[in-house]
Amino acid sequence: MAYALYILAYPPRHRYLAFLFLCAPILYAFKYHLSLTPWYSLNDTFGRMLYIWLAYMSYAFLLVRVTPDVEPGAGWRQRVQWAGKVLYTRHLGEYHTPPVTHQACDEEKDEEQAMQPASEIGMLRRRREPPHRLNRLDLCLRHAAKAVLFLAINHTYDTYLIPPKTYPPAPFIRHLPSSLAVHELRLRAMMTWNVCIGDMLYFESLYSVVVFVIVRELDRLLERSPVLGEVLA
Fold first, then answer.
1. Which segment, 20-29, 32-41, 117-126, is predicted with the most confidence on average?
2. What residue ranges are annotated as transmembrane (predicted)?
3. In this structure, how many other beta carbons lie within 10 angstroms of the beta carbon of residue 201?
4. For the segment 166-204, what is each residue's pLDDT rounded down to a tens digit?
5. Structure pTM?
6. For residues 6 and 57, is the Cβ–Cβ distance under 8 A?
7. Higher pLDDT, residue 126 or 161
8. What's the pLDDT band for 84 if we cut at 50, 70, 90?
9. Cβ contact 208:143 at 8 Å
10. Cβ–Cβ < 8 Å for 78, 71
């Protein structure tokens, strides 16, 4: 993580070589992630986080090629703060600053903008619209309700749907081949829920908890990250 912040804050000349150095510890951790703790679910979640995060870094660092959008002569604190926002943002385009090309390209761009209506020019220069206009209390209540709802859904599934007694054999299942027995169908349904739906609800609930804590206790209006959206005072 520290190395990722460093290469984002101070982009090296050879980006692919720097990314190769980043892959080395990630691959090592992924190879032994199942032996990290005695709990398989925790280890599996950590392993997924590793390759998802590495894929995001490859997209932001190699494809989009983000560069620090800071003031000239900015110190390392401002650069690291910008790099941290890039790591956790859901809208990477806000931190992408296209490189300055030849002056002729700028003149062509000015001519194209001059030919466009004023309303379209304003929309091009305008940043992404905020996803909501909620005040602090409404945002906290909404995320608290979402976290409780998603955790309740997962708890209901774990408590009432996983036990075998809740899976009575349906008539059409009795006529299926032995390769598609009730037990196998149940295991496949459980895997689909756990990998796709259950994890999505779990991580969304964790995101809501983090938003609730930051906005309610730690956040300041002037330093709110755009990952949380614009919130009215």
1. 20-29
2. 16-34, 46-64, 193-215
3. 20
4. 555 555 555 556 656 666 677 777 777 877 888 888 888
5. 0.47
6. no
7. 161
8. confident
9. yes
10. yes
Main-chain dihedrals φ then ψ at residue 21, nearest 5 degrees: -65, -35
Amino acid at 181: A
124, 221 contact by CB (below 8 A): no
Structure-token pair, residue 62: 């190699």
Beta-carbon-side half-sphere exposure of residue 38 (alpha carbons within 13 Å): 0
- Own/partner contacts of 40-49, CB < 8 Å, gap of 24 or more, are 45/199, 48/199
Give how far the C-alpha of residue 220 lies from the chain's centroid of Cα atoms, to the nearest Å.
22
Q: Mind giving me the DSSP string for the chain?
A: -HHHHHHHHS--S-HHHHHHHHHHHHHHHHHTGGGSSS-HHHHHHHHHHHHHHHHHHHIIIIIS-------TT--HHHHHHHHHHHHH-S-GGGG--PPP--HHHHHHHHHHHHHS-HHHHHHHHS-PPPS---BHHHHHHHHHHHHHHHHHHHHHIIIIISSGGG-PPPHHHHTS-GGG-HHHHHHHHHHHIIIIIIHHHHHHHHHHHHHHHIIIII--GGG--GGG---B-
In total, the chain counts a number of residues equal to: 233
Q: What is the largest CA-CA distance in the chain?
A: 74
64 touches 96 (CB < 8 A): yes
Which whole number is the average pLDDT over 46-51? Answer: 86
